[in-house]
């Protein structure tokens, strides 16, 4: 007996296509609404300290932890192009499973970033915190610890939140969907990496210029 082919696969594919179409539309809309002026100022506060030889720390939870790790990798690769001209370093506080689980076990998961920051950071460094909710306890404690040390706090959040209020500069993505918000955070990282790569080209060109001749001393001018 011949069994009729089910229509379910086609219906399932239509649903998938609809979801893909909706997501692309939502992402396009979120990108169109991204405040590019605010993004540029945020990136300047992130990249300038690196070019001045200071350290930048990055942290986040869950998907934002992978974004933090991705940011550390991308910006480190871009900064490596500046070695020899006093470039700084970027560290991801979410990367070490051993360190995070040790702190969580011995103290509290709330302290996994703040304790690392207290032992590693110094006044003048920068901390970038990524949290779409802006309410994660360990991220808030990291911001508080940073402010006590004299570390400038930058945050990428979904909307106005406790974290944005604790930060020196917060970039609100304005996306209600967590996935879209995380996509935008990663896009900002890629923008920052591009800025560093372009800055490298300018820096090399300036370094290649011959030094200006010294001004004559007052006695020689007589």
UniProtKB/TrEMBL annotation:
One of its GO terms (molecular function) is carbohydrate derivative binding. InterPro entries: GmhA/DiaA, SIS_dom, SIS_dom_sf, SIS_GmhA/DiaA_subfam. Pfam families: SIS_2. GO terms for biological process: carbohydrate derivative metabolic process. Residues 46-202 form the SIS domain. Transmembrane segments: none annotated. PROSITE patterns: SIS. PANTHER family: SEDOHEPTULOSE 7-PHOSPHATE ISOMERASE / DNAA INITIATOR-ASSOCIATING FACTOR FOR REPLICATION INITIATION (PTHR30390), SUGAR ISOMERASE (SIS) (PTHR30390:SF8). This is SIS domain-containing protein. It comes from Streptomonospora mangrovi.
